[in-house]
Fold these 2 entries.
Entry 1:
Amino acid sequence: MDLISFRDLSKEDVEDYFARAEEMDRQLEAGNVEKLDGIVATMFFEPSTRTKLSFQSAAERLGLQIVDFVGSSSSLKKGESFEDTIRTVDGYADIIVIRHPLEGSARVASEFAEAPIANGGDGGNQHPSQTLLDLYTLKKMKGDIGALNVHLVGDLKHARTMRSLLYGLGMFGAKVKLVAPSGLEMARDAIADVKRKFEMEVEETETIDFKDADVVYVCRIQEERFEDKYEAMSVKKKFTIKPEYLQGVKEDMIILHPLPKIDEIPPEVDKSKYAKYFEQAKNGIPMRMGIMKKMLGSARQKKG
Amino acid sequence: MDLISFRDLSKEDVEDYFARAEEMDRQLEAGNVEKLDGIVATMFFEPSTRTKLSFQSAAERLGLQIVDFVGSSSSLKKGESFEDTIRTVDGYADIIVIRHPLEGSARVASEFAEAPIANGGDGGNQHPSQTLLDLYTLKKMKGDIGALNVHLVGDLKHARTMRSLLYGLGMFGAKVKLVAPSGLEMARDAIADVKRKFEMEVEETETIDFKDADVVYVCRIQEERFEDKYEAMSVKKKFTIKPEYLQGVKEDMIILHPLPKIDEIPPEVDKSKYAKYFEQAKNGIPMRMGIMKKMLGSARQKKG
Amino acid sequence: MDLISFRDLSKEDVEDYFARAEEMDRQLEAGNVEKLDGIVATMFFEPSTRTKLSFQSAAERLGLQIVDFVGSSSSLKKGESFEDTIRTVDGYADIIVIRHPLEGSARVASEFAEAPIANGGDGGNQHPSQTLLDLYTLKKMKGDIGALNVHLVGDLKHARTMRSLLYGLGMFGAKVKLVAPSGLEMARDAIADVKRKFEMEVEETETIDFKDADVVYVCRIQEERFEDKYEAMSVKKKFTIKPEYLQGVKEDMIILHPLPKIDEIPPEVDKSKYAKYFEQAKNGIPMRMGIMKKMLGSARQKKG
């Protein structure tokens, strides 16, 4: 069992991951995690502290061991093919977590490896464990995802996780408002796809107004996406989550963010009761524990 | 419970650390270390092989797991704040060991993290586990620290650990001779402070004469501290621990050094019976095991 | 017990390593590896993903912990001697795996360390665990090494492992054909040595003809070894293992390679039933588990 793309998952699959993460949360809370035996290889061809540490920490909570394949000081430099590298690491590990700047690389890796592959991000494409932990955070903090009104805010054109998140929200019947600056809107086909597939309510706007939001999910706007530096400054300023944006919002509204954040959320908002992104990040641990435990179970069936 | 500065510790605290290190030594000797469960994050924002490996090895002896946050390939590059980085890693670990070039950084980290923080060196300021292992080495090798005559030798102005060590020696009532070249003496206020606080006997001299020493603690003199290169050469030559300096010293005198050393101790002295710095370095293992075990105990109480 | 050079081993020693690797294979197969307690330090002064991951993975399968000394960000930069570095790491570990560009460095390390040293490659000299896993692969796949006809193919002058492999094949009475381009032949004295010592049949040729081969062991030809770039191209082309070379070979012939490979084996051959190098690489796990288990056993005897 690989985890390559969120799009490969049915609603039942996602709910199974929720149940697994909940079980892991229970075991963590009780300080009594059932230990497994196995080796997880982390192969990060581009830096991602957060994803790597989260997978490593989750593996260690399960009693798994880690070998870290460091892309830059490796055989790849000597000209070895991606296929050979994957096949070699496959011989040393029971699970491979891969992050690679090329779209589709995790899928390619899964063709060469016997070990289950967890996609830790392939270019601007997929980052399924992030989407799962985002949805799990909504379920854990708010209960019924289908009853939520979620604002996705920022550069929805480039942000890796936003398309998958939209898809996941559609799966559970949430209402979504896409709040993006002109030129950085989410791709038309992605919106059309979820509307058709889930008969989903999707509103698009450039105007920030969080009053009806249960969840505000913020992602960063990068200056370098604009040709006109003056426009960039003005858009960035508008899409910074200023304290006044929080006036009149629902009492239990929550702000999420995939992290790392730079200056899109100022310190005052950071310290507000709405800010939940560090708890969100922590949910990566039980979710990734659940993912890897499922992988080891399926690997065992496969091999023996 | 954090370990940020040696100055935060009472004599009772230090004696408690001694007792814990002794217990760890007993368990190591018996090949029967009681295993704990937890994750230690090492966050080294500047290189320090020795401190990092020592903490990692100590953690592993206790059965703890390690996640290594590598500063250079991290989110910090993308502009993330120190606070956010600490808060994120805090979500992945039960203890954080931090080394950072900025004075006070470990204290700052402790404000953002729920996990206990062990300061592995913050600039030229504090390195408390080093001071603890130095004092533990004295107790283990010589018994009563209060009965010792200790020479601190070298660049006492810049050496990170010397002020704390002086303070610790004062705490236990040792007699200290500060042997430094002109211009590299220990800061006046540090000396005044221990004299007042512990009614301590502190002698200052430029002259090397180890005949009355029970312990000679050497630290390096760096050429780059001098404007006049000729003077630098001459001072470095004088403060190299030549074999003739050892004529007439006490039979059981010991030479310590925080390591790494370069050329301040020549091979003949290295091979002498007085040289005890590698045993000193080894004492970092039981001391750091004791520190982390204490931290996990207190963390458990804190969290419930 | 160190493992520095294959030449230090008797046939009985090698057979003991085979038996240990077989036992490890049995335990891995049964999913029931007897766990040991201890720390392995990996000290790689030059990159070698494969060897490092293989040792780390083998250690983890045994339940051992790892501390990774990273040469480049270390005290060596500050001018510390090799001896001091080894002595320090020795204080933190029960086994040291070292790879260093300088010939003889592993032997030197073994003089300063109390912990057993495993040589993971010292310059162009020795890489004994590779030779052991190569021979173990032959035994496992083919049974009686003495009955084999082995072709060693490629740059036999510079390839690290080829001399030791020739020696090992001689030890077991195999028949060997050395197939190298002119100018890249194996050193005369190495051939004379095995002929004398084992009364070994060694044929030398520039002509590729695998029809009588049981085993074809390929190593890479590096362009930079030639002064004449045109000659380099022509020789590289000839020593690429083209599909037509496999016409008429024995049904159960196997192709081995120490990996990483670049372009010396084209995809068609890669996919053929003869290609066994990834299985060969996997045999590094049980062999290195056996090596480290033996080391820990002997260390325990040594220390008390």
Entry 2:
Amino acid sequence: MLRTHTCGELTIQNAGQEVNLCGWVQRSRDMGGLTFVDLRDRYGITQLVFNMEVNPVLCLEARKLGREFVISAKGLVAERSNKNPKLPTGEIEINMTSFEILNASKIPPFTIEDNTDGGEELRMKYRYLDLRRNINRKNLELRHKMAIATRNYMNDQGFIEIETPVLIKSTPEGARDFVVPSRMNPNQFYALPQSPQTFKQLLMIAGFDRYFQLVKCFRDEDLRADRQPEFTQIDCEMSFITQEDILNTFENLAKHLFKVVKDLEIGNFPRISYDLAMQEYGSDKPDIRFGMKLFELNDLVKGKGFKVFDEAGLVVGLNAEGCAEYTRKQLDDLTEWVKRPQIGASGLVYIRCNMDGTVKSSVDKFYSSSDLTSILETFNAKPGDLVLVLAGKKESTQKAAGELRLEMGRRLGLMDPAVFKPLWVINFPLLEFDEETNRYYAKHHPFTSPVPEDIQLLESNPGAVRANAYDLVINGVEIGGGSIRIHNKELQKKMFQILSFTEEDAQEQFGFLMTAFEYGAPPHGGIAFGFDRWCTIFGGGESIRDFMAFPKNNSGRDVMIDTPAKISTVQLKELNIKLVN
Amino acid sequence: MLRTHTCGELTIQNAGQEVNLCGWVQRSRDMGGLTFVDLRDRYGITQLVFNMEVNPVLCLEARKLGREFVISAKGLVAERSNKNPKLPTGEIEINMTSFEILNASKIPPFTIEDNTDGGEELRMKYRYLDLRRNINRKNLELRHKMAIATRNYMNDQGFIEIETPVLIKSTPEGARDFVVPSRMNPNQFYALPQSPQTFKQLLMIAGFDRYFQLVKCFRDEDLRADRQPEFTQIDCEMSFITQEDILNTFENLAKHLFKVVKDLEIGNFPRISYDLAMQEYGSDKPDIRFGMKLFELNDLVKGKGFKVFDEAGLVVGLNAEGCAEYTRKQLDDLTEWVKRPQIGASGLVYIRCNMDGTVKSSVDKFYSSSDLTSILETFNAKPGDLVLVLAGKKESTQKAAGELRLEMGRRLGLMDPAVFKPLWVINFPLLEFDEETNRYYAKHHPFTSPVPEDIQLLESNPGAVRANAYDLVINGVEIGGGSIRIHNKELQKKMFQILSFTEEDAQEQFGFLMTAFEYGAPPHGGIAFGFDRWCTIFGGGESIRDFMAFPKNNSGRDVMIDTPAKISTVQLKELNIKLVN
């Protein structure tokens, strides 16, 4: 090794030792007789001291060191007179006896500091420099810790990790596939997996009753802030189980990760049905770090002559505690906010519970003081509270109210990133009807089984059928989801019919799976977690990009290696493809 | 859970307990009053007993169970009268009280037994049934065990696993890339990585001084038995190290895996230079489970009038101990064997050391008895031994002799798959000259550094420059290889020149890496192991396919899911490509 120690480990215990450190020059300060160099590696920072009186030649050489030079430095550990309690190595410094420049460095295009002066575009182009920043290093270290803790936990529970193929078959259902032309099979293509769904089901049929995999998945979608063309899943599947077993097994995984990675003991996760989540939180991924539940007001407000409420499918409100002091301006702003197209409400009604006990609302014309008081009682509103009410079509109004709830939570500082409130959302609808194409789509995927007692509704009322499906939500983010699968060939056939697959489509796309079901498929189910997202939540980050070593930008480009790129005509010819301009 | 126990865990200790098992019907035997069903799951086999006298209805139902039916079975654990010591559960059986068919099965197309009647093609089409066979299940379990042991060991050594991207950039150097058309960047392509080589070097520049990854890699090559279009590497890189540190670190990983996976204590691995390996074993991946070293005979045989030897660049032999009794026919067969195009020798000379001390050779005409005795002494040949000699051009004759050595090792039973003899081969040549294109190619890859003392030869005699490169070989199989990298931009530029890269080529393909080298690249090096191969060696298997869940055939096809396949014209259009017929 070119070093005896790292830059993060020397303490007062090592005083007097001769050591050899390697690392990067973080900064250097020239203080007349002394030159200080902060040497950085993955493990920390150690202060090197060059003394003009003791060794002027060395000191002068040291003054030539630029930022990010890589050096190997030899010296004696000494107690600092001026200790730095913020640094683990802050009690010591190294009195230098010699050093060697292992590599020089050009001046980096941005500062290697937590608060860097580099914009995102520049940092992505020089991602290898960006990754030198503590904050990014810690993100990747957290990701590694999550991965190894996950694997060991799953292994301890008897799961085995099995690698499924990356070169698979394109299926038009779901998002767009990335495809790979086959040279050996002209005019044919592989596809990259959007998930190993069918393979993990085949592994259950193969008898591997507890499978997991941390696996790269791919989706050729138009990218948003929180999407990447390649991402990682914790993919899991079990046989001979019920939904209850899945929820328990993976709740325990989550608790284990909270403990190991965040040092947090989390109690049992609440479970809430999709219907109730929509009703109380206006979201299928409720953030339950705070209450502010939605209440339906239809019975209280209808028939009093206020047309907006009378004609609405749903009148729903929430109590923004302590917001009675909101000014006219603030209320107008909030009204504008809910009317933005992303939220889509037509307006906002408020009922203010003044400190003196009086009530004031924007609908005083239609509602008596006692009408308003009844509404306030629904929310347990106290003097000082502000009830906000939306009205409109049921589904869109639920969602708008859910967004308003989150916005008020943000404004009131109720969403502490250090607080974690996981929960299960269960009993999702099995199907979604799409008006445009006039057909049902699988809410989850076509292999999701219905709740047994709802199977009878499949023909008569498909929209009402609940799925044996579940999501794990943490702080308003869907971390994972899964379902108990259909293991019966007949039921699977019926599902394909309801999803408007022709017999031929189903056969061509999933024929091998349907054949496999004929050879003793066990009852099975599973779950997949968005590993990037989970890391992001645990790391207190905003974007999954910050938890990937080499992410792509919104155009799917890696600006560092400059890809995608043109390929040679020889390559195109070998692959039997031609470009269309 | 639908079961209380697995089919592998019940013993005499459980006698009297009521249990619930789930699994597949391996076989059933109808013995008049009793019906026995062997129930199988991933963990083992348990015998279920149905008694016609006790419960005739249940027994008659059980008789209808076909092979591979999936059932849930309830009963009481009882001691067997007729114990089966070969089975962990062989002391007990379950007296059945009820069962439920969870899923029926068609008759499988081949028997689910270690010695199956199914051919490879059929088994691959029904791979999910093939994987039910013990032998395949054990292979994947071994692979999982290897992976988790590797990860924990690397983690314990301070390495962090970092995921590098799968959608990268095509580089013409090396094998053919698989490419992925980009929809968002028309007429541009991603490539799938042949290895994360450049990314791991960038991670070193980023300061992650100990990186590893178990990672899928891709090569669009014409497939042979031991090649797959996608395969897995244990990819590793370290900074601030010398070759010695790499060899020690990864020798310890290998020893750890031998211990954990094979329960074997392996001593220190021998190290041998490439030149010596070629000289003594005729191979850069010698199988040292047996001796039978090659000896050069040029000095002993030249100038005696035997033209074949006189004109040869190399005359080289080996001692096949105890083979003096080989018949004329056997020697003729062996001569034919070495003359096959795969071996390419022009003939075979033998010198037989008879049991009575006399010597007989196929070149008695040219060599006196004392000439021959001198040769035999070179090999320490004893009465009963047979020395075999090849002659020709140096390099091809070394290789042919190496192949002959392996063949004799096989014939003499010297290659016990339960014996493991790892070693390091070091000091590879840096460059290989290709006569056809009249240029040098990197033997390893263009980032491999020369042995420091040979740098001066780079201009004058590139072919003589040794690389700071090493391979780990186990039982004649190259398990891994790596090198200390060039971290100096000037040296890297010179390498590209020697490899006939134009400035533009180098810039276009590796520009970002060369730029990165300007910002403080630390000295670094690494290694990559063929994970599939390592599993295959440890599992005593023949082909890496048997250690992959869903391998492809020699045409790169997955015959189970029938891919590669056609994609829709909509997809082609979105990707701006057209098929060429």
